[in-house]
Each structure stands twice: as structure tokens, then as C-alpha cells.
Q: What sequence folds into this?
């Protein structure tokens, strides 16, 4: 068991990755790994920092449970994954069967192997939902698979965002899904991608009225003001004729107050963007991730 909560001793981590404690201490002394010190001067390593280190060096983990990770990717009984050489197909099969643990292990293993959250979102997650999304036409069983898979991925998205270190001094981002858009996964994945890129990200969740975005963004308290606001648009409330004008008003105010607004999702094309031609619009998490890196470079 790890030393306490999210903090590991050099011994814990050395056992987890199967190296000697002295090698590990040497690496910390050389600055390969960030450590804090206890009152008594002993080194402690944050779990997320340990995961970052393991990923960056593509190290084997021999005792994953010490890092709070699932025991093995092999825990997938009753599904023949061996015959599938496409990793995304394997993930789809796990999701189709509602194999919660298997899907979790599969995705976390790929994350540890170095795939980014953005790539996992655009790859296995999106691809499996493109297929699962066709099943509801077939009746209750398809709907069962769709609902179950959504909940599995909601849990996974939360877990992935806990795997990336949170930077106390990172830029602030806030966002959510526009009113009428009840999709849960895109805001969760957007938040995880922002965290992966060093942002302090707040998710307002699905179905967020534009007035709520305004309240969150244009607060008088400078410490609460975000540096970037994002809106997920995967469905639009067709019964609300004023939504287009309210969106344009919000976008213009962001521009006037020098607050970066980004929108993304499958229904962005339904929004009239003529009067806000320079608004960044993204249809994938990888494009969004590239944008975030360029945005950070511009600010420094
Ligand atoms: C799960 C699901 C549901 C669930 C939602 C549960 C929940 N609360 O989240 C439920 C069952 C409620 C549902 C309902 C319906 N759904 Co539905 N649903 C889906 C499904 C299978 C997955 C959606 C999802 O989460 N995808 C995972 C995300 C990660 O992928 P993505 O949406 O493609 O997003 C990617 C990009 O667009 C981008 N992105 C997305 N958002 C953002 C935001 C930002 C800021 C950025 C940068 C990028 C970005 O990055 C993502 C990763 O690459 C999709 C199928 C599909 N292909 O996605 C259908 C789908 C969206 N649904 C569809 C339909 C028709 C419906 C219903 C109308 C069905 C019905 N007759 O009842 C209802 C109505 C919904 C409503 N208006 O309330 C259609 C939409 C068709 C269309 N108009 O294009 C789809 C495409 C299924 C299909 N093939 O027919 N649905």
C-alpha cells in the first residue's frame, strides 16, 4: 500500500516499477522526478507526478495497484479480443458488452503507454460511439448498450482527468454544454484535455444557459475571471429562437473584454457565426489541444 493517500515514498514507487530504491532516489536527486519533503525531511512523490514519470519514460509497471491503477489489461473474460488487431475495435467490443473494468483497463493502459487524452477522445471513444450510436434504431437492446456505454465513459473521463497533474498557477478555463445540449461526455473530455495542457479547468456540465456563462465569465472578482471559455455544442434547442442572438451577444462581449472563447462539437455548424468570423471552432479534441498549446505560446 502506498505511504499515504496520493503521496508515495521512493520505496513505494520503486516497488511499483520494479527498480531499486537507490536508483529511484538518485533520479529524484537529479531532478527527473519532482519530490516534496515531509517534516522529517523524507522524500514524497505525488501519484500524478509518478504517473507522468512512468509515461514519459515508457516504463513497465509491475505493481500497478501501488499507483492506484487496475491490476492488468487482461481482465476481460468472455470476450475474444485476441483476434482483433485494431485496438479501437477491442475497446468497442468491451463497451458493447458493458465490460466496465475491461474498458477502464484498456483505456488507462493506452494512456500509460503515452496516448494523450485528446487522442483517446478522438480515437477509441469517438469511434466506438459512432458505432454504438447506430444501435438505438434497433430497439431496446441498442438503447441499453448506448446508455451503459455512456456511463462507463463518463467514469473513465473523470478518472483520466485525475491522472494529470493540476497546476495551481495554470491559466483558468471554464465552460460547458450550451442550453439544449444534454450530452455529458464532451464537456468532461474537454475538461480533461484542458487539464492535460496545464489549465485549471471548471466544467459547468450539460445544458448550461448562456446567462450562466455570462455570470461565470464576467464576474467582478478578478481572481475568479477565466482566461478562456469554451462551449460544447452537440445539440441545439430548436424551440428557442433567440439562442443564436444571445450566443452572438456573448461572443462579442468576450471579444470586447479580451476573453478567448472557443466552441466545438458536432452541431457547431448550426450556429450562425457570420458576425464572429474569427471565433475558434473545433471539431476534434486533437485540434483543440493544438490550439491550446498555440494559445499558451502567444501569451508568454
Ligand atoms: C450517448 C448518446 C445519446 C445519449 C446521451 C447521454 C448523455 N446524457 O450524454 C442519449 C440516449 C440521451 C441520446 C439521446 C438522443 N440522441 Co444521441 N447519441 C449518443 C451517442 C451514441 C454518443 C454521444 C457522445 O457522447 N459521443 C462521444 C463524444 C466524445 O464524441 P463526439 O460527440 O463525436 O464529439 C467529438 C467531436 O465532436 C469533438 N467535440 C465534441 N464536443 C466538443 C466540445 C469542444 C469544446 C471541442 C473542442 C470539441 C468537441 O470532440 C469529440 C471527440 O472527438 C451519439 C453517437 C455519436 N456518434 O457520437 C448519438 C447521437 C448524437 N444521437 C443522436 C440522436 C438522433 C439522438 C436522439 C434524437 C434520439 C431519439 N430519437 O431519442 C436523442 C435526443 C437527444 C436530445 N436532444 O435530448 C444522433 C444525432 C444525429 C444528428 N442529428 O446528427 C447520433 C449521432 C446517433 C445517430 N447516429 O443517430 N443520445
A:
Amino acid at each position: 500500500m502506498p505511504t499515504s493517500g496520493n503521496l508515495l515514498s521512493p520505496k513505494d514507487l520503486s516497488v511499483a516499477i520494479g527498480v531499486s530504491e537507490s536508483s529511484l532516489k538518485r533520479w529524484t536527486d537529479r531532478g527527473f522526478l519532482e519530490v516534496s519533503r515531509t517534516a522529517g525531511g523524507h522524500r514524497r512523490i505525488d501519484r500524478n507526478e509518478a504517473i507522468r514519470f512512468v509515461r514519459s519514460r515508457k516504463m513497465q509497471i509491475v505493481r500497478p495497484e501501488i499507483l492506484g491503477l487496475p491490476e492488468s489489461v487482461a481482465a476481460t473474460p468472455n470476450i475474444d479480443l485476441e483476434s482483433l488487431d485494431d485496438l479501437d475495435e477491442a475497446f468497442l467490443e468491451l463497451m458493447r458488452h458493458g465490460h466496465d473494468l475491461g474498458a477502464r483497463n484498456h483505456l488507462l493502459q493506452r494512456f500509460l503507454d503515452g496516448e494523450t487524452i485528446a487522442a483517446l477522445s478522438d480515437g477509441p471513444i469517438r469511434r466506438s460511439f459512432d458505432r454504438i450510436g447506430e444501435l438505438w434504431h434497433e430497439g431496446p437492446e441498442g438503447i441499453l448498450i448506448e446508455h451503459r456505454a455512456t456511463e462507463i465513459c463518463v467514469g473513465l473521463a473523470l478518472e483520466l482527468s485525475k491522472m494529470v497533474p493540476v497546476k495551481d498557477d495554470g491559466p483558468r478555463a471554464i465552460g460547458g454544454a450550451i442550453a439544449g445540449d444534454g450530452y455529458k461526455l464532451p464537456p468532461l473530455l474537454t475538461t480533461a484535455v484542458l487539464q492535460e495542457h496545464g489549465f485549471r479547468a471548471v466544467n459547468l456540465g450539460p445544458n448550461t444557459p448562456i446567462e450562466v456563462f455570462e455570470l461565470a465569465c464576467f464576474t467582478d472578482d478578478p481572481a475568479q475571471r477565466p482566461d478562456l471559455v469554451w462551449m460544447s455544442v452537440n445539440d441545439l434547442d430548436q424551440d428557442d429562437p433567440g439562442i443564436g442572438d444571445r450566443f452572438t451577444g456573448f461572443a462579442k462581449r468576450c471579444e470586447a473584454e479580451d476573453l478567448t472563447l472557443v466552441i466545438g462539437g458536432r452541431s457547431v455548424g448550426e450556429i450562425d457565426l457570420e458576425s464572429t468570423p474569427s471565433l475558434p471552432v473545433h471539431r476534434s479534441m486533437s485540434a483543440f489541444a493544438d490550439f491550446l498549446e498555440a494559445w499558451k505560446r502567444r501569451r508568454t
Notes: The domain at 7-67 is CATH 1.10.1660.10 (Multidrug-efflux Transporter Regulator; Chain: A; Domain 2).
